[in-house]
């Protein structure tokens, strides 16, 4: 079996979408978790979005002219994000994944760090990534809110919606704290979703990006100075997106903030691990993560 590793092109989008759907649905079903995608169309929409997004590079593995695996590298300044990575279930355990990973690491070799997120219920993926020096650095909680918030949330006076004019100021706030250059991501959120900014006495204290998706509203990335600011931003978002399902991924260490989200009606979907290859580590701010485009 000979494998060709090459750049993903637009003509691969549908096939890559099938692989994402089959691989992620398969692993969730194997461990008794609800699927994160309801139909193959959601996988294709994800593949389309990844392939069109400017800071994301897709690499595919092809066997006998058929694409059987994919991984994306998302460069953000000196730090990168990996994923999603998926292998057609019929080709798992057949050395395709190591070949894709080698190409991925070669592509990202100038980066000081690469981070990935993976569900803790997925031991194959964990041992695979660990074998390539991705170390677990934080426990994350994937939270879902299906429909109406339990409490009736109010819009918050100190929270406002960012416009394109405020992007540079927000990046200046974000970069020294996250150590990511997320200008491209934040521009995308302003265009296709909303960025909520918490300000006090004219100073930014936190922000939350909100992106409508095919199923749920994705809440994150979030970066906030303190749990009260983070809670305020989420409360405002739920008041805005009343009755819509929402998803987010927060740090398990931020216990008081997580409990505030539970009181609002969020439920735990699963434990995930933030894995890093390199020197980057999470800072002391409250953070949440989105699935796309910031992803990890
Ligand atoms: C995760 C995934 C991409 C891995 O592909 P795969 O073909 O199953 O992986 P492989 O069989 O080549 O590797 C997995 C195993 O080989 C080991 N391995 C692979 N390359 C290795 C290396 N170079 N050195 C040491 N061990 C290695 C791993 O530790 C792992 O061991 P295990 O037997 O304990 O599970 C695939 O299972 C998949 O698509 N899963 C669903 C989607 C997903 O979870 N994506 C990852 C999160 S974004």
Structure overview:
- There is one protein chain.
- The chain folds into 2 domains: 3-111, Aminopeptidase, CATH 3.40.630; 144-289, Gcn5-related N-acetyltransferase (GNAT) (Aminopeptidase), CATH 3.40.630.
- The relative contact order is 0.16.
- α1 (13-30) packs across α2 and α7 runs parallel beside α8.
- β2 (56-63) and β3 form a beta hairpin.
- Helix content is 33%, strand content 34%.
- The chain starts with a strand and ends in a 7-residue tail after the last strand.
- Strands 1, 2, 3, 4, 5, 6, 7, 8, 9, 10, 11, 12 and 13 form a 13-stranded mixed sheet that branches.
- The chain is globular, with a radius of gyration of 19 Å.
- It is α+β, with helices and mostly antiparallel strands.
Mean pLDDT: 94
Count of structural domains: 2
Provide the helix percentage. 25-40%
Strand content: 25-35%
What would you report as the Rg, rounded to the nearest angstrom? 19 Å
User: For the report, how would you describe the main beta sheet?
Assistant: 13 strands, mixed
The CATH class of the largest domain turns out to be Alpha Beta
CATH fold-level assignment of the largest domain: Aminopeptidase
| Alpha-carbon distance between the two ends | 33 Å
Give the assembly state of these chains: single chain
Structural class by SSE content: alpha+beta
Bound molecules: coenzyme A
- CATH homologous superfamily label of the largest domain: Gcn5-related N-acetyltransferase (GNAT)
Query: In the CATH hierarchy, what is the architecture of the largest domain at level 2?
Result: 3-Layer(aba) Sandwich
Q: How many β strands by DSSP?
A: 13
- Along the chain, the helix and strand elements come as EHHEEEHEHEEHHEEEHEHEE
Question: What general form does the structure show?
Answer: globular
Give start-end ranges of low-pLDDT stretches: none
């Amino acid at each position: 079996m000979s494998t060709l590793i090459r750049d993903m092109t637009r003509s691969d989008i549908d096939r890559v979408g099938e692989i994402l759907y089959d691989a992620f649905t398969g692993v969730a079903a194997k461990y008794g978790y609800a699927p994160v995608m309801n139909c193959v169309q959601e996988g294709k929409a994800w593949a389309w979005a990844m392939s069109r997004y400017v800071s994301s590079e897709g690499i595919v593995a092809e066997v006998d002219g058929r694409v059987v695996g994919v991984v994306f590298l998302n460069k953000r300044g000196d730090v990168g994000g990996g994923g999603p990575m998926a292998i057609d279930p019929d080709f798992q355990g057949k050395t395709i994944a190591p070949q894709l990973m080698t190409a991925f690491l070669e592509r990202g070799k100038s980066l000081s760090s690469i981070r990935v997120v993976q569900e803790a219920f997925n031991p194959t993926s964990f041992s695979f990534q660990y074998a390539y020096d991705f170390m677990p650095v934080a426990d994350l909680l994937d939270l879902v809110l299906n429909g109406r918030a339990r409490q009736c949330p109010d819009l918050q006076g100190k929270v406002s919606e960012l416009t394109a004019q405020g992007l540079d100021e927000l990046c200046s706030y974000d970069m020294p704290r996250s150590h990511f250059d997320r200008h491209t991501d934040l521009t995308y959120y302003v265009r296709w979703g909303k960025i909520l900014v918490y300000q006090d006495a004219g100073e930014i204290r936190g922000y939350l990006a909100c992106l409508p998706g095919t199923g749920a509203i994705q809440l994150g990335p979030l970066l906030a100075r303190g749990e009260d600011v983070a809670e305020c931003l989420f409360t405002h978002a739920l008041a805005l997106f009343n009755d819509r399902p929402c998803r987010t991924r927060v740090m398990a260490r931020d216990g008081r903030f997580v409990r505030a989200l539970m009181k609002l009606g969020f439920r735990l979907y699963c434990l995930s691990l933030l894995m890093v290859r390199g020197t980057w580590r999470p800072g002391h701010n409250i953070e949440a993560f989105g699935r796309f485009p910031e992803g990890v």
